[in-house]
Structure formats: C-alpha cells, structure tokens
C-alpha cells in the first residue's frame, strides 16, 4: 500500500494532539503515535474522530505509513526521553529522513543531537514552539534550527500551521544551524519570565499600594491593552482579574503566591552569565519565582521584620499612569537585554541570526506576542547591526517619555516597602548602560590589591595591563589575566 502520511508525531499530550489537529486542518495527513498505545486509541476515538489522522501502535507501523523523506516530530519530555526516542527511531529510518524535536530542549543537547543524527545519514531539526495549547491548535510561533538541508522538506507544513503576523507573514522561518532554534525559544521564554514579573509588579503596586480591587485593575489592564502595551500577557491579565470563583469573589486572590518554573528562564540566565551578557531583568524574574517558593519562610519573616506601611497616598489616576510608564520602559529594557543575548550567542556559536525576523516570528502565536514586537522588527530592518534596542529612535523616545514616571514609581515603591525587583533592575541597567564611567575602576584596583589580577589604565592603550605593589610587600609578580 502506498504510504499516505505527510508527517508523524510522537507524544499525544495536549500540545501534541493540538498540533496534529492543526496540521489536519491544513490538509496534511498525520500519523499519531504514543509510547502508551492506549492514548492512540483514545485520541482516534475522541478529538481525531472523523479526521484523516492515522493511528500507529508501533514505531515500525508509524514509519511504514510515511512518505519519503520521512518526517517524524517528537513532543516528549526534554532530556533523556528525547535521546531514547531517537535511538528507537534510528533502526527504522533511512538516510535523508528527518527527526524533529519540538519540545523545550536545552540548545546544547540539540547541537549534540544534530551532529549525532547527521552522522547516521539523517537530518535533525530542533524547533521551538510557542503559544501553549491554544497556539498549538490554531497557530503557534515556530522557531526551527538544525540541519539546513531539512528545511525545504518541512517549510510548507510549518509555515502553514504557524500563526500569521498582521500582514499575513508566517510566524515561522529558518533560524539557523544546530541549536539555534531552541536557543531562540529559550530566550523567548526568558523574556516571557521578565514580562510576567513586570506585570505582577504593576498589579502589586495597584493592589497593595493603591488598594485597587480586582475589578478596578481589570479596567486598568483593559485600557492598557488598547495602547502601546497591547499584548497577549496584558490581555490574559485583564481576563484573569475579571474571573470570579463560585462564590463571586476574584479567583486570582485565592491562588497561593508560590510560582513554578520549568527551567528555560534559568537556562537563559546561566547562558547569559557564560557569555558575559547582563540579562539582569530575566535573572530577577527567575529569582522572584524562587523567592515566592519560600512561602513558609516569608510568612514567618512577615511577623518579625518590620518596614513601612505600603499604602500609597497619591492621586490614583496619575500614579496608575506612572506605573504604566514604568512597565513600558522596563519592558523595553527586557527586550533590549534579550536581543543583546541573541547577538552574543550568534557570534559565539557561528549562527547567522536575523534579529528582525525573530521579532516577526514572535509577533503572533507565541506567549510574548505584542504590537511592541512589530517595532522591534522595524528597528532591525532599518539597522540590522543595531547594537542595542534602546538606541533605536522609537525605543529611545519611549524611554524618554516614560522615564519620569518610571523613576517615581521605583522611588515610591522603595519608600513604601513594596518590592519591584524587575522594574528596579531595569532602571539600574538603563542608568549603567548610559554611563560613560562606572565604579569598576575601584573594583579592578581591589582585585589587583588582593589577587594581583592587574588592570588597564586610561592613559595607556586597551589590552595593556598593569600591576601595582599596593602595600610595598606584595611583590611585583602579577596573576594572569582572564575573563569569565
């Protein structure tokens, strides 16, 4: 019998099922497989009933249903399960066939897997998929990287099922070699951490500081979503604040204040440290989640550690507008840091990342989708070598117009004891980045004093290092210079 399957998908959890149905809607015949075969039967009898989806109870059966080159997408748990699934697939596939990892894999693993699969004569794609369950079903942002020869064989499918920007452009394009796709998805998730934390800080300022009710904050976010903060995360925050529990009270206020995380934000921070890129806002967002998890400690500390009363006695409407300014300016810094990291990673790994295209891929379907990303795309289209987003005319103007309110909100929050770690670190980064001189000269003197680590002088060429015998007893031999 002639194979009918255009692509196979292994992993029938919610994301996998929704992607299959999405592909089916666009005219593709998908072969569905799951390690627990009962899930295949359940899917075919449920959501996939009446579709062209083909069920497969074994790897062999799945492969036999596929047209060549065979395309097999994995949506299994990141880590060892991906490697195990690849090993099960290899004996059944032939040179030129394509394995696609669509999970949230660590990009170093994708680099390793690309090399390994290519060494076996096959092609490998590691692709980020963002948009959650809804995005998977109706159009996610898709960020593929890996074996470039595989791209023509999956491009049509990926771009058909992806979200579309306002001008109809698919929110999917080839990102780059080996781990580039998963790296871009990782940074996307790091920025997502920052966006969410900033919104939570704005909510806390209004709730704890101004005493606004959930319904009042719903109206604020509803209004914000009509302007320059228009985004998916502002939109869902608006809806969350209006959602009532069975007793008519806001559900959000009954949710325990301990945040979870799956690791992509942490990976972003770790890699930024390795590359020497200060993604301070993402780091604060990650640590804010860690701190929230210390619930019992915080409850005890609340009874022993005293601070000012949080009530903010200011004109409500004016301060809410200042909070909006602080959120907007901090968001600019967050994205500036994220794109700095992408630029550094491209240089380190030899990837040719198109930063404007990446912004466009995030313009629809993904969790951080927003009108804001269209401006980032425009900035990099105008100046592909733009060093920092804050230097673009549009974003520079945005910070200038928001700066007074931004500074005031952080000052008031500090005086009233309301934590705004992400907004505060965003301002600190902005002030540090625009400073032509920082106190690192003293830091270098300290390092040289206790460890003979040397320093550069302003009256000598860069790259020429000096050492001083600060005490007269330390000697004149210096340590080797290095950067971490």
Structure description:
- Helices cover 52% and strands 8% of the residues.
- It has 484 residues and is an alpha/beta fold.
- α11 packs across α12 and α14 crosses α18.
- The longest helix has 34 residues, at 316-349.
- The model has no long low-confidence stretch (mean pLDDT 95).
Low-pLDDT residue intervals, each spanning 5 or more residues? none
- What is the structural class? alpha/beta
Q: Which radius of gyration do the C-alpha atoms yield?
A: 25 Å
Question: Strand content of the residues, in percent?
Answer: 5-15%
The helix/strand series, from N terminus to C terminus, equals EHEHEHEHEHEHEHEHHHHHHHHHHHHEE
Spatial ordering of strands, largest sheet? 3-2-1-4-5-6-7-8
Largest sheet: 8 strands, mixed
Number of distinct beta strands: 10
Roughly how much helix do the residues carry, as a percent range? 40-55%
Q: Overall mean pLDDT score?
A: 95
